[in-house]
Task: structure prediction
Amino acid sequence: QVHLVESGGGLVQPGGSLRLACAASGSGFSINRMGWYRQAPGKQRELVAIISSGGNTNYEDSVKGRFTISRDNAKRTVYLQMNSLKPEDTAVYYCNVDIIKDSGPRLTSYWGQGTQVTVSS
Result:
């Protein structure tokens, strides 16, 4: 069983910062790629940032230079540091984790419950 718990969302003013965290619990698996997605009202869910098992990162163009994704493998946690936040960053942010079960090589994707980020003055 794999369970993801997200934290760190909230209400901030434009230009402010938030740090999101997503921790994986359970046993019988290893973590491969980890990432963050977001979905604004009336819009499709989009990729924000991803980080590979080797630490390689990719970002959506609009967040480059402002957001930083990182991971702590010992804590089985992925983070998203969000700086210089803009109103257009307002969305529900979802953690996504690709895991490999110890019983086989098949890759399986899991989603966190989502955390609301609101940027408003």
Notes: The two ends are 41 Å apart (CA to CA). The chain has a mean pLDDT of 96.
